[in-house]
Amino acid sequence: MTQVEVPQRLEDKTIQPIPPSERHGSARDLFTIWFGSNIMVLTVVTGALGTAVFQLPFWLTVVAILVGNLLGAVLMALHSAQGPQLGVPQMVQSRGQFGSYGALLVTVLVVLMYIGFFASNLVLAGQSLVAAGLPVGTSTGIVVVGVVAVIAVIFGYDLIHTYTRILTYLSGAALLLAFVWIIGVHGLPEGFASHGSVCIAGFMGTVTASALWQVAYAPYVSDYSRYMPADTGARPAFWSSYAGCSLGSIFPMILGAIVGVAVGEDVVAGLDQLTGPVGPAIILIFSLGIAATNSMNLYCGVLSTLTVGQTFAPAWSPGRVVRAVTAVALFLLALIAALAGQNNFMANWLNFITLLMTVLVPWTAINLVDYYLLRHGDYDVESFFRADGGIYGRVNVPAVCCYLIGAVIQLPFVSTTMYTGPAATAMGGVDLSWIVGLAVISPLYYFWAKAALRRSASVVVPSPESTDAALI
Asked: DSSP labels for 317-352?
């Protein structure tokens, strides 16, 4: 396939399939977008959960961070490898598993997830700008970083990739400087070696938070690989995404674990305290990472919102203007949530990511089993945009039922400050919800969907050429 390297200054596509003539980029771009976008304050905060909230020793927190990220990144990277093959946003592709109307269940939840992540990042961005010494209040900082994200979404895919490519070097250097300063100049916090105690519930809570950090990217990771040539290759796409996202998350989380030992839950102030005179510069650079990630959250939230609308108006082909208007609307919703939820951030963040796990895990299990084990990446893209769902229909009963079962079956194993299920209580607060969800739903959906495909006389195996189908 001929690769055409013509990046658009202002992207004109939204949820439409990307034609071969507009495909560009390479697998290494997937490393930079996931490495550069993860080095930010919210990643540091997530790493601090182990030592500050769960009161684990530093060494055990690092083990939990490694286990969670390295396992969760497998799921994230498997989704990323779907983008070059299909050339459509992830939530559009979900119609191939759930049906045109069945996919709405997950897509609406994903939009809410993006707004939640966006709002969480805004709060930390506002606090970070204040900690960096800029002459703005937290609320003003929240608005400023939000507006930057909106502007990036208006320009679209290529600007976001360029932004994170720059941050790979800038934020990477700031992260290295933070470690060198804390360890070599300031010194590790007093009582560092004796901090915390071994706790299985806390260990699993940290593993869950780290794994969810990766799994949360699954509903939109292929949105950032969909412009790449179809011959990019599944393996290069997988390993570039896996390496970028896992490395870009693990090291900031370890930094957060150090900060958590020193100051507890006030991570931004603690990072500023431990890094001394270079702290404001480091925090300011990490704030740029927040703006980059927020642009990604908002961009994909917009694509998912447009996917919902297009479900009811199949002939609708939204463009750049609709993307801009929708971005502003979602930003306003996130802004309200951020301004209202500035206080008690750590507890709210932990509850939010645990809740996300219950709704994302069954979806990712269904998507990956369907894509890799049942259809082997062979989908009829044209059917994604048909009113009747094409060969996938309006509702795929096995997928929708398995999704609901997956959400319900996790509840007894959930452990949060808001709700702890009976199974988690019996195990001393250990949260195994996501492991149970994956272990039950993956085989259940495989055998149920496989049996349904065999029974269906209307199943049509799409040809490889159909993956380049245009929007109808």
From this structure: ---HHHHHHHHHHHHHHHHHHHHHT-SSHHHHHHHH
Which residue blocks in 132-278 are alpha helix, DSSP H? Answer: 138-155, 157-180, 200-215, 234-263, 267-275
Overall pTM surpassing 0.85 (yes/no): yes
Indicate the class that CATH gives domain 29-346: mainly alpha
Task: Tell me the pLDDT tens digit for each residue of 23-71.
Answer: 999 999 999 999 999 999 889 999 999 999 899 999 999 999 999 999 9
How far apart are alpha carbons 32 and 344 in whole angstroms?
Answer: 33
Query: Phi, psi (5° rounding) for residue 415?
Result: -135, 105
Q: Which residues pair with 415 in a beta bridge?
A: 420
What's the gap between Cα 357 and its chain centre?
A: 11
Other Cβ atoms closer than 10 A to 35: 26
DSSP code of residue 16: S
Q: What pLDDT score does 464 carry?
A: 44
Residue 51 has what DSSP assignment? I
Give the integer Cα–Cα distance in Å for 22 and 310. Answer: 22
Tokens of 14: 């939204």
| Two tokens, residue 255 | 């930094």
Angle at 113 between CA 230 and CA 38, to 5 degrees: 65
* 3-class SS of residue 27: coil
Q: Which amino acid is at 444?
A: L
pLDDT (average), residues 163-174:
94
